[in-house]
Amino acid sequence: MSTTYKVKVNKTFEVDFTDDHISKIDALQTSSTTYHILQDSKSYDAEVLTNNFNTKNYSIKINNTIYDVDIANTLDLQIAAMGFSVGSSKQVNAIKAPMPGLLLDIQVEIGQEVKENDPLLILEAMKMENVILSPRDGVIKSIAADKSDAVEKGQLLIEFE
């Protein structure tokens, strides 16, 4: 089974590629970042200027023209279709109650700097204490609940700057 990739160039032009398409490209790597490509009897010089393997975003220069290229595989497309994005936890700006419960302790203050995985608060739900950890580094902007408050699922608890 062949993998399909959706390639978006300069955030406007989209094209689909499969492993079969890629295997038929006549490309010769000339250095760690440069390639010589032959396609339909035309010669192209390509250079990878920047790359981000996590976001699958590349800046590529082909015959002195620079293109911004985003690549998504089948899994990336499925994740996007569900409304998620890769690495989205690092972009969280608010903590909401994951379940109804009782807020036993708030371990941060407004203006406090926190690191990823620092404990923020303790929520008791179904007779279990759940420590809610910071999903990213940041500064606490506001705290929307108090110790001993009963909270509902989805209720705003903490906002980051």
From TrEMBL:
Pfam family, one: Biotin_lipoyl
Residue ranges of every copy of the Lipoyl-binding domain listed in the record: 83-161
InterPro entries per UniProt: Biotin_BS, Biotin_Carboxyl_Carrier/Decarb, Biotin_lipoyl, Single_hybrid_motif
Keyword presence, Methyltransferase: no
Keyword Nucleus: no
Organism: Aquimarina aggregata
Name assigned to this protein: Acetyl-CoA carboxylase biotin carboxyl carrier protein subunit
Classification via PANTHER family: OXALOACETATE DECARBOXYLASE ALPHA CHAIN
Lineage start: Bacteria, Pseudomonadati, Bacteroidota, Flavobacteriia, Flavobacteriales
Sorted UniProt keywords: Biotin
